[in-house]
């Protein structure tokens, strides 16, 4: 599952919005919002694009994109 809380914190820290992520990834705002909130599965390709946009190091990838928390 996506570590939604930490990913959203990182977006705030980088002064980015969901719409910025959606534009970069090439998906709709609602699609990316659902994926970040864990309501839709995120593809590895989308996760890697978000990783690049947010400057997430490779060793932190699992922390943001493979969290063991359950979606509510």
Helix and strand topology:
Blueprint: H1 4-13, H2 18-25, H3 29-36, H4 44-54, H5 61-65
Helix pairs in contact: 2-3
Describe this structure as you would to a colleague.
With 72 residues, the protein is mainly alpha-helical. Helices cover 58% and strands 0% of the residues. α2 crosses α3. It starts with a helix and ends in a 7-residue tail after the last helix.
Summarize this entry quickly.
This protein has 72 residues and is an all-alpha fold.
The computed structural class is mainly alpha
Instruction: Indicate the percent of residues in helices.
Output: 55-70%
- Spans of at least 5 consecutive residues whose pLDDT stays below 50 are none
Major sheet: size, sense and barrel closure? none
Quickly list its features:
single chain; 72 residues; mainly alpha; 5 helices; 0% strand
